[in-house]
Amino acid sequence: MKxxxxxxxxxxxAMEMSRSLPPEPVVFLKPDSSILRNNxxxxxxxxxxxxxxxxxxxVKINRLGKGxxxxxxxxxxxxxxxxxxITARDIQNRNAASGLPWELSKCFDGAAPLGSFIPVxxxxxxxxxxxxxxxxxxxxxxxxxSDMIFSIDQIISYVSGFFTLKTGDxxxxxxxxxxxxxxxxxxxxxxxxDRILLDMMIK
Length: 203
Ligand code: MG
What we know:
The chain is of the alpha+beta class. The protein is 14% helix and 33% strand.
């Protein structure tokens, strides 16, 4: 399986990163070895001194698809959760400044913690999902998928023009404003609506 991620998909986050709004989705991949499940702790790696959280809505692809029309994209995922696109911001900034790839900053072990998936049928409107991240009991990110520049269906359509989507593939749909640093013993709690789907420690 593959993990497809979208960057700069919320205006306020692009502003906080001092980046212009992308005319098309900004897409990158993570390997399956970056997945962390079951609220396992994330261990801070020694190669970075600036590890940051990015809370994102994640959808799970449930059938094979390529060249999917936006109007049929909803049929291609049936589960959703909140995940964290953990980023070594120092490495990302350094590589981006030199025009080098981002992989080392986004693809390390544990860089994709996943909450528990819930059926999309339990979500009244996927284009208006409230989600939030708490760090040590304080809300640090809070947004709605209605704030996305490219909707979930538009992302599925776009990326399926480049990659065949397969059952079990995951799509991280971008983070809203409020990204920030992670330190040892931080406690992260991710919610969709009022439901806690992710509850993990940084070690
Ligand atoms: Mg991200």
